[in-house]
């Protein structure tokens, strides 16, 4: 993957890079950015969804809660995580961890890479829509800083349920949209083969979304994972300092105003 600083890419190329198998995994990102990560499991209701990785970690010696979507690396893990598409138990687990973080005053960092919520029969039977809506409702009023980073795909409500933070950043090789380019093309033109054209029309790239003030910034990427980790750490440090200056009331008010404008 080539940095935006080196070469201007088309929307279709960014989509391909966002889906690339070269993308860092959730665990690689967590290990590279945070220390002393302790994973926590289960939604305390029905299951433990492998598509959501969450727990407590240290960031610059400060306790934080980290939640990430996990696509997996091996074929077995990808099947187990539905290729990074969470089920209701995954969203309920993430909300449980966010409410726990609020109780103990820990900031939350979410790392998002999902094509969307799992659309299978089991997910619908177990309340997929309600689980996503509950996340949106509850996260909108938690009294702690929430920073979201989309590092690959950011698809529909499945991504928004974890990307509704006070600050939203995107990796330069990532996408954020209401549905996939293939789905958009199939609906609009009845021809999914026009996905590349749809990607451009949808304005799903970080640059376009930054221009529209939907996101707050773009994380530069390179082949060096250490450089990416360093860039993310620098961004998180600044954002946490800024957000922690706000009172709980100001934090909630600004977060809700942010999303109401859309």
Per CATH, what is the topology?
2-enoyl-CoA Hydratase, Chain A, domain 1
Helical content stands at 40-55%
CATH homologous superfamily, by name? 2-enoyl-CoA Hydratase, Chain A, domain 1
Supply the number of structural domains.
Answer: 1
> Radius of gyration over alpha carbons?
17 Å
H/E series: HHEEEHHEHHEHEEHHHEHH
Task: Return the average pLDDT rounded to an integer.
Answer: 93
Uncertain runs:
1-6
What is the general shape?
globular
CATH classification, class level: Alpha Beta
What is the correct CATH architecture? Alpha-Beta Complex
Which strand-content bin applies to the residues?
A: 15-25%
Q: State the helix count.
A: 12
Helix/strand class: alpha/beta
* Distance, first to last CA: 31 Å
- The overall strand count is 8
Largest sheet: 8 strands, mixed
Describe the structure concisely.
The chain is an alpha/beta fold. It has a single domain, classed as 2-enoyl-CoA Hydratase, Chain A, domain 1, CATH 3.90.226. The chain is built from twelve helices and eight strands.
């Amino acid at each position: 993957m080539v940095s935006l600083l080196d070469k201007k890419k088309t929307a279709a190329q960014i989509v391909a890079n966002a889906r690339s198998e070269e993308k860092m995994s959730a665990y690689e990102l967590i290990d590279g950015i945070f220390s002393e990560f302790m994973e926590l499991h289960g939604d305390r209701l029905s299951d433990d969804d492998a598509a959501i990785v969450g727990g407590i970690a240290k960031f610059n010696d400060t306790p934080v809660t980290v939640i990430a979507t996990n696509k997996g690396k091996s074929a077995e893990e990808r099947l187990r995580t539905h290729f990074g598409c969470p089920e209701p138990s995954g969203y309920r687990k993430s909300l449980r961890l966010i409410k726990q973080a609020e109780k103990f005053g820990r900031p939350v960092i979410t790392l998002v890479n999902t094509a969307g919520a799992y659309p299978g029969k089991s997910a619908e039977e177990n309340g997929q829509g309600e689980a996503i809506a509950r996340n949106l409702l509850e996260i909108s009023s938690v009294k702690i800083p929430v920073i979201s980073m989309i590092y690959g795909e950011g698809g529909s409500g499945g991504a928004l349920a974890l990307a509704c933070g006070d600050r939203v950043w995107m990796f330069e090789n990532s996408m954020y949209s209401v549905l996939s380019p293939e789905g958009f093309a199939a609906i609009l033109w009845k021809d999914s083969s026009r996905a590349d054209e749809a990607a451009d029309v949808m304005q799903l790239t970080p640059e376009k979304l930054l221009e529209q003030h939907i996101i707050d910034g773009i994380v530069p990427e390179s082949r060096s994972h250490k450089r990416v980790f360093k860039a993310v750490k620098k961004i998180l440090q600044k954002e946490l300092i800024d957000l922690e200056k706000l009172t709980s009331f100001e934090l909630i008010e600004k977060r809700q105003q942010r999303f109401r404008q859309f």
